[in-house]
C-alpha cells in the first residue's frame, strides 16, 4: 500500500496527453462516467448534477479526442444532449490526427422510443444505433423526422456489431458515455478497454443506479489504475485500463 500525495498543477498539454487514446491497431472503447462517493451514477435523475467545472473540462477534452461518442438514447434525451461540437482551438489537432471536424454521436436505442421532436436526431453528425426488429412504426416515425438509423443486431443492439460498423468507417477512438445499462452491455461483451471515472464528493443516498447496471460479464473485468488526479473541491479523476489485454476478435 502507499499514500496518494497531492501533485503539482496539471497543465493543459499534460492533461491532453494523459487522456489521449492509446495507439492501437484496433478500436479502443473508453467509458467516461461519474459517480458519487456512495456509488450513485445520478443525482436528481441526472449524471450532470454530480459534476463540477474540472469534470466538465475533462468531459469536453475527451470528446475532442474521440472519433465517436456513443450513448444510450434515453440518457441523451434525459441529459439534453445536443449535436457534438468541438472548440475552435481543437479543430486543427483533430485535422492533424486525421479526424473529422466533430465526433460522430451515436444514440443507442432498441425500442426507438425517442421523441420525434428531439431535434438532435436530424443533425448529420448523429446516427441512431438500433436493431432490425425494432418496432416498424417507431422506425418510420424517426426516419420521417430526419433520423439516420444503423442496424446493429436483430432483437437488441449488439455492442460488438456496433463496434464493427464503426471500425468499418475508420472510427477507432470510441468514447462511451453510458447510460448504465449500455455500459453494462459493453462490459458484458468484454469490449471495455478503459474507464475514465470522476468520483464526485457528494453523498446522495436513495436508489440511483450504479455506473454499470444490467447485463453481467462471465467474470469480473479486472482493471488497473493508469492515473488519478484531484482538485481542491474534492473531485477525483481516475483513468482505468484493462489489466489483461482484450482477446483478438474471432476470425471464424
TrEMBL record:
Residues 27-230 form the Bacterial bifunctional deaminase-reductase C-terminal domain. It comes from Gordonia phthalatica. It comes from the Bacteria. Keywords: NADP, Oxidoreductase. This is Deaminase/reductase. The keyword Iron does not apply. Pathway: Cofactor biosynthesis; riboflavin biosynthesis. GO terms for biological process: riboflavin biosynthetic process. One of its GO terms (molecular function) is 5-amino-6-(5-phosphoribosylamino)uracil reductase activity.
Amino acid at each position: 500500500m502507499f499514500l496518494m500525495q497531492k501533485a503539482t498543477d496539471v497543465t493543459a498539454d499534460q492533461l491532453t496527453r494523459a487522456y489521449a487514446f492509446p495507439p492501437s491497431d484496433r478500436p479502443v472503447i473508453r467509458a467516461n462516467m461519474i459517480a458519487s462517493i456512495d456509488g450513485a451514477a445520478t443525482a436528481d435523475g441526472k449524471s450532470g448534477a454530480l459534476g463540477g467545472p474540472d469534470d466538465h473540462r475533462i468531459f469536453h477534452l475527451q470528446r475532442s479526442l474521440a472519433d465517436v461518442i456513443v450513448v444510450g438514447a434515453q440518457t441523451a434525451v434525459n441529459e439534453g444532449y445536443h449535436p457534438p461540437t468541438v472548440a475552435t482551438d481543437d479543430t486543427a489537432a483533430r485535422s492533424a490526427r486525421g479526424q473529422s471536424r466533430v465526433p460522430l454521436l451515436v444514440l443507442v436505442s432498441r425500442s426507438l422510443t425517442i421523441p420525434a421532436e428531439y431535434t438532435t436526431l436530424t443533425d448529420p453528425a448523429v446516427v441512431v444505433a438500433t436493431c432490425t426488429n425494432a418496432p416498424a412504426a417507431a422506425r418510420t416515425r424517426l426516419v420521417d423526422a430526419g433520423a439516420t438509423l444503423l442496424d446493429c443486431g436483430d432483437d437488441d443492439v449488439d455492442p460488438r456489431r456496433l463496434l464493427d460498423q464503426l471500425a468499418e468507417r475508420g472510427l477507432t477512438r470510441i468514447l462511451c458515455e453510458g447510460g448504465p445499462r449500455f455500459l453494462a452491455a459493453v462490459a458484458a461483451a468484454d469490449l471495455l478497454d478503459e474507464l475514465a471515472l470522476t468520483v464526485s464528493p457528494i453523498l446522495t443516498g436513495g436508489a440511483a443506479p450504479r455506473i454499470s447496471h444490467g447485463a453481467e460479464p462471465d467474470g469480473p473485468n479486472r482493471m488497473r489504475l493508469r492515473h488519478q488526479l484531484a482538485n481542491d473541491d474534492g473531485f477525483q479523476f481516475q483513468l482505468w485500463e484493462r489489466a489483461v489485454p482484450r482477446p483478438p476478435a474471432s476470425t471464424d
